[in-house]
Design a protein that fits this description.
The chain is α+β, with helices and mostly antiparallel strands. The protein contains three helices and four strands, in the order ββββααα. A hairpin with a 2-residue loop joins strand 2 and strand 3.
Length: 110
């Protein structure tokens, strides 16, 4: 998976990090923003949409690889205590894992 790039990415692009302001969607919580590959945001947003029961969107091979990479990190940390700075992060990661599973299952079984 390619994460290197020259785009400004949010770094935590999921449903819980944007709010609706009238007819606009506004991204919040920019603490993970960095320069990287836009597929980082696309892959995590697709996972979030799938986790919330939304449609499964078609992703590039690179974005799918990033979904798998995110999933591996969530599974690796599953048995660990949550960080002090984010006591609710385990629930968020468990929820996102559901979306990642929905996105990846057709590729694993097809």
């Amino acid at each position: 998976a390619t994460i290197e790039g020259d785009a400004f990415v949010h770094g935590d692009a999921r449903g819980g990090n944007f709010c609706l302001a009238g007819e606009r969607a506004v991204w919040v919580d920019w603490s993970s923003a960095h320069i990287g590959h836009p597929d980082e945001d696309l892959s995590l947003l697709a996972v979030s949409i799938a986790a919330d029961g939304g449609p499964i969107v078609e992703l590039s091979d690179n974005a799918l690889a990033l979904v798998a990479l995110h999933s591996a990190s969530w599974v690796t940390r599953a048995g660990q205590k949550p960080p002090e700075w984010g006591p609710g992060v385990k629930e968020i990661e468990a929820h996102l894992w559901i979306g990642a599973k929905r996105l990846l299952t057709p590729y694993l079984t097809g």
